[in-house]
Amino acid sequence: MLYLPGCCLVFLLFLSSVDSGKTLWKIKEQLQKNKQVNLKLNVEGQPPQQVKESWLEQPLDHFNRLKGKTFSQKFFVNEAHWQRPDGPVFLFIGGEGPIFSFDVLAGHHVEMAQQHGALLLAVEHRFYGDSINPDGLKTESLADLSSQQALADLATFHGYICRSFNLSSRNPWISFGGSYSGALSAWFRGKFPSLVYAAVASSAPIKAKLDFSDYNHVVGLSLKNVAVGGSEKCWAQVQQAFAAVEAELLTGNLSQVAGDFNCCQIPKNLDDQIELMQNLADLFMGTVQYNEEGVLLSVKELCDLMTNVSGEDKDMEAYSRLIKLTQVYRSSTEDKCLDVSHEETIKHLMDTSVHSSRRAERQWTYQTCTEFGFYQTCEDSTCPFSGLINLQAQTKLCTAVFGISQHSLPSNIAFTNSYYGGDEPHTHRVLYINGGIDPWKELSVVQGGQEVQSVFIEDTAHCADMSSRRVVKRDSLRRARQEIEKQVSDWLRTASLEKMDKGADGIKP
């Protein structure tokens, strides 16, 4: 999630799901900016692509058409590889952020589309990117933001594309997505099996969970994982560093801590101290989640810094090494200081102006309150960070920003799991792909069964399989991509046989 000056950036089709701290959100924005630069390198030298940006007017509320209000949904079409008229359709589903033309130009799904002669589509999620009305961020308007409405958008979009391109049962659809959009890909197949023949769901958190303490548990295990450059000593040093910061705060050395970490404010109250701890933890969470995918430091490099493998400054304490890590982070950003103001966080999340829509924090925070939870807490002893990062601190944003009672969150999350099936979905022709050090695997399907298929990549991180083949380094990832390609080929072969068996009557769901 962070960048080394001059390093070769890698392609990330989709960025993470819920990110708690300001630092993680800022890093995510930086990823989005650099994503476009690197994607240009991936498509450079290729023949001109037939990419068209278009818009579809969608109902704001599919479940109450009497409202009559609509919004314009952005999508991209790439016909360059499509073998008319019988070629399949590959749909890339957008998640909690904007889509780009490169979403139909590069990535593993595009490479498979070239192989199978598929029509490529990418559709933006309502209330994100450019697919939002001028008043869409007002709290009363956010009532129309949900995964259920997003799936209904996809169903309407499916009908529109079929009419526009004269598609029929001879054109099987396969949906693709990563992280939240990976969950949408799986759910689209589950809720609309007659529309989408199969789905690929990369790093997809299909189970909603209020207290997602498992996230930081996996981060801790990954910091110990020798296969990716971690060690027991690394975990211990990280734990010691955070304990030292807590000790400084408890003894009242607030100005000293603010100076050490170049904070924009002195963290005088508990809320600001929690902000500080969260943003420091973000550096480790982001490194693990996006290991070797364009982050400033890989897990190995981060652990080398925290354990002083190089031999330089061998007597440096864990606290000082954490300071050095924040200096490395700031050197790669335009931030002059670390913003630890909780008041500023609230102010930012309450900003309803349109310019905020591309950053997505307000919208996604709303969805965590109303549907998913996903709060990455650190109250478990296995978490190497600070116990100040607790559930109460995170969920109170729902009340402060949207007026949503904290007591309503468990029932909201229970409904989501009841509606979709949680991590035991009763669907078939969905391929779940997860990386061994990705914390989000805890909410996905890691082991397949009779109806559910999965690919597990032991030593990779979040959505690593979605990148272009040009940036694939690990053998395990190459083998996994071959498995994915085989599964997609098998699906299309089966669809073709079913079409032959049934004639023109349609494809079985």
Description:
The protein has 15 helices and ten strands. Helix content is 42%, strand content 11%. Helix 6 (232-250) packs across helix 9 (299-307) and helix 9 (299-307) packs across helix 10 (318-331). The longest helix has 28 residues, at 475-502. The protein has helices at 22-43, 108-116, 147-165, 180-191, 214-224, 232-250, 254-260, 270-289, 299-307, 318-331, 342-349, 361-372, 391-402, 409-420, 475-502; strands at 51-59, 70-78, 89-93, 119-123, 173-178, 198-202, 209-211, 373-375, 430-435, 453-457. It is α/β, with parallel strands linked by helices.
Briefly, what is this?
By secondary structure, this protein is α/β, with parallel strands linked by helices. The chain has helices at 22-43, 108-116, 147-165, 180-191, 214-224, 232-250, 254-260, 270-289, 299-307, 318-331, 342-349, 361-372, 391-402, 409-420, 475-502, and strands spanning 51-59, 70-78, 89-93, 119-123, 173-178, 198-202, 209-211, 373-375, 430-435, 453-457. Helix content is 42%, strand content 11%.
Keyword list:
alpha/beta, disordered N terminus, globular, single chain
Q: What can be said about the biggest beta sheet?
A: 8 strands, mixed
What gross morphology would you assign? globular
The helix fraction, in percent, is: 40-55%
Which residues sit in consecutive blocks of at least 5 with pLDDT less than 50? 1-19
Q: How many DSSP H or I helices?
A: 15
> How many DSSP-defined strands?
10
Cα Rg:
23 Å
- Taken as a percent bin, the fraction of beta residues is 5-15%
Order of helices and strands: HEEEHEHEHEEHHHHHHHHEHHEEH
Strand line-up of the largest beta sheet: 1-2-4-3-5-6-9-10
Mean pLDDT, all residues: 88
Helix-strand makeup class: alpha/beta
Distance between the termini: 39 Å
